[in-house]
C-alpha cells in the first residue's frame, strides 16, 4: 500500500502518533522525540504546555486523544514525515521482538550444542567437498533424461521401504534426509498403509534436484506423477520440501517420529555429528532407518584404476571416493546413543556394456568423485588402460562388465523407558558351561 492510498484513514491512523510519542517519552528516547516534535509544530505546542505544567505522559496521551482528529489533519499535511516516524517507531518495536527471538534461538542452540561439545569430533580435514557434491547433484537435475540414471537409488529406496513396512508402528511425522528427487516417497506402498506416515518432510542440499519433479516446473514428469500423487493424497499424506544440509539439520528437538535416509549420508564428512543431530530430532522411541554405500562398492572399477595408473603414470591417484565398512557403521550408530541397533548389508550387481558407460551412469546418478584431495585428473591414457583392464579382469561371456554396489542398511531407535534393556552384569542364573554339559 502506498502512502497516498492512506488518505481516507488519516484520522484513525493519526491516533497512533500520540501513542508513539508517549512511548518514546516513557522510554527516554529524547533524540527521537525531539525529531518527531520538530516535524509537527502543533504537537510540540501541546507537548510543551503539558511539560511546563508537570503533567505525566498518561495525561499527555489523553490530551492528544482529545484533539486527535484535528491534529491528525495537521500531521498528515506532512505525511511523508509521519510515515518515516511511524516506520521508526514500528522498527523500534520490531527490534525488541527480534532481540527476544534471537535470545530464544541462542538458548536453544546452546541447549542443543551442550551435549555435543564433548562428543562431537570436529574434522580438521574434511574428506568430501560438499560444495562440489551439491553442484554435481544440481547438474544432473538439469539433464533431460536424469530419471533414467536413478535405477540404483530407486531399488535401494524400495528395499529400505520394505524394512520400514516390517515395523508394526505408526509414524505420523517422518523426515526423508537427503531425499534427492524423492525416491523413498515414490516407493511408499499404498497396500501397506504408506508405512504409517501421515506427513513427510523431504530435505536435500541440492535445491534443483529436490524440486525437479515439481508439477509446476516439469510438466512431462509431473504428468507421470499426477496419478500417483492423487492416490497418495487420498490417503492423507502431506509432503513438504525443504533445502537443508545433512550436516546441519534445522529441526527442533524431539520433532519427528521417523527419520529415513537413502544413499545420501555416505557423502557426509562428520557422520557422527549428523547421527547426533538425527537422534536429537527424533521423539522418544523414534526410529532411524538409513542406507549408505559400503566400502566394497565399485571394487572392480577401483582395482582397474589402480592398475591403470601404475601402468601409465607410475603411481596412483584417488578416482573413487572412500566408503565406510559394516563394522564402523554399526559402532558409530550405537556410540551415538541409538538403542536396538541393527545393521545388515546387501550387494547389488549391475551389468554395463563397458567401463565408460559405467562412469557415465555414475555421473548421472550424482555418485561421481567429490573428495577434497583429488590429485591429478585422469588422463586419456589412464582411462583407456583402466577400461581395458576392467574388461580383461571382470568381463563376462556376453561382453558386459559387472559393477558391484554394497549397500549397508542401518536401523536405530531413540532411547525410551519401554524398550528392552540388557540384564545387569552377573545376574545370570545359569552359565554356558552348564548348558554345554546337557
TrEMBL record:
<dbReference type="InterPro" id="IPR036079">
    <property type="entry name" value="ATPase_csu/dsu_sf"/>
</dbReference>
<dbReference type="Pfam" id="PF08241">
    <property type="entry name" value="Methyltransf_11"/>
</dbReference>
<dbReference type="Pfam" id="PF01992">
    <property type="entry name" value="vATP-synt_AC39"/>
</dbReference>
<keyword id="KW-0808">Transferase</keyword>
<dbReference type="GO" id="GO:0008757">
    <property type="term" value="F:S-adenosylmethionine-dependent methyltransferase activity"/>
</dbReference>
<dbReference type="InterPro" id="IPR013216">
    <property type="entry name" value="Methyltransf_11"/>
</dbReference>
<protein>
    <recommendedName>
        <fullName>Methyltransferase type 11 domain-containing protein</fullName>
    </recommendedName>
</protein>
<dbReference type="InterPro" id="IPR050602">
    <property type="entry name" value="Malonyl-ACP_OMT"/>
</dbReference>
<feature type="domain" description="Methyltransferase type 11">
    <location>
        <begin position="175"/>
        <end position="289"/>
    </location>
</feature>
<keyword id="KW-0489">Methyltransferase</keyword>
<dbReference type="GO" id="GO:0032259">
    <property type="term" value="P:methylation"/>
</dbReference>
<dbReference type="GO" id="GO:0046961">
    <property type="term" value="F:proton-transporting ATPase activity, rotational mechanism"/>
</dbReference>
<dbReference type="GO" id="GO:0005739">
    <property type="term" value="C:mitochondrion"/>
</dbReference>
<feature type="region of interest" description="Disordered">
    <location>
        <begin position="418"/>
        <end position="438"/>
    </location>
</feature>
<dbReference type="GO" id="GO:0032981">
    <property type="term" value="P:mitochondrial respiratory chain complex I assembly"/>
</dbReference>
<dbReference type="InterPro" id="IPR029063">
    <property type="entry name" value="SAM-dependent_MTases_sf"/>
</dbReference>
<dbReference type="InterPro" id="IPR002843">
    <property type="entry name" value="ATPase_V0-cplx_csu/dsu"/>
</dbReference>
